[in-house]
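Possible race condition, two jobs.
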Amino acid sequence: MPTSQHPSEEAEWLRKLCKRLRELDTSIDAGELFPTVVPEAGEFVAANPYAFCIATCLDRGTRAEVIWTIPFDLSQALGHLDPFLIDKMDLAEVEAVFARLPRKPRYVNAAPRTVKELTNKIVHEFGGDAAAVWRDANAEKVHRFFNSIYGVGPGIASMAVLLIEKGFGVRFGDAERPAMDIKPDVHTMRVLYRLGAAEVQSTELAVRAARRICPDFPGGIDGVLWRIGQTRCHAAAPDCPNCRLEGLCRKVGV
């Protein structure tokens, strides 16, 4: 526990922190979690579950604005974003499309295989209906689906579950919520460390910290942590006076 406070004081701090983060989370519009370079791309992802799945599975090591724009770029390059047609393409054809995109994922050599595996599963297991991945499914099953795709780890799979709730009006069961974790990235790890909830900036300790703060639904604070890290708690020159966690943040390392 990264504090020398009395256990009762620490418990009260955690309670207040959870309450504040949950309040702030309700003010975040789903569109803020799907930032894009061009407005049409955000609308495209929000309305197209297959596009959402592509962006989610490619979300590793690149700015969110780029990742959430890539499905739109793919549709422009192909003239469609039809999973049945993409499933019929061979890997070399998909690689050629990625090579000419105006914006690319960080792991551009791995991305075509990721998209091919994702598409194959959506076509052959869900009849081409990407929304069926989560329709009438529990959070564990959805997590397992995303985690099975090439290049997608448990962190991205956790993010997918959380964003499906935010972006598509799905609510998974209350009994599952304690096991729905955050997706630790540079923003969430930095915020949890500076708050004083995690001893160092690491994926493992970030997940543990979120569980300590909101044990009944740790993933419920993922979006707000990410947004604060992106807009206020910058790596250099954090905007502490305008951060709505002011008064609760221990400002570790600031």
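Job #2 (started ~2 s after job #1):
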Amino acid sequence: MSRWRAVTSAVVLSAGAASLATGCGKPPDTKSEGSVLEALWTVVKGDSARVRGPATAEWCDSLRLVQIQSLRGDTGIAIVLYPVKEFGAGRYPVVPPDRADSVPPAAAVAIRWFAETSIRGFQGDSGEVVVREDRPGAYAGTFTARARSVTDGSRLTLSGSFGGLTVRPGGRRCVAKPASPDSGRGVD
């Protein structure tokens, strides 16, 4: 996979995490009855927390990824799935976001919440997302991940499930940037 595509995918996950962090992301489609994501996490040497909220799933054809997102209050979770060819049921190993698009099938996971005095953000670096088709066109699954803080190196474990997701086409933000003129020439 090209270095440019790897950078692009990291930007997509970072943009998803940034929209989660600012609360300015697209609100979940509450008209999708039964679409839900639930997660439990434990910060190493810290507290545990749980969240359950409505979820969305969008297919970005130009980048060949599915983004599952849930926002509940000040907490947000994003799971980006990179299928080999087409999205479907299967196992997606969690890898660091900057590698996820170059080793399909793969998943990138991000979570953020407001702590007492700061925003805590974590990116998954190991684990697995398992997707199954509940009924034609509706997906459910489970996930486990170990994640590292994007600011201080602390770790957490994350597990959860999602269900009732109908994958919809991605919106305006789902646009691949054209390759730079220097791509493919070994220029960094």
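The radius of gyration is 16 Å.
Logs attached separately.
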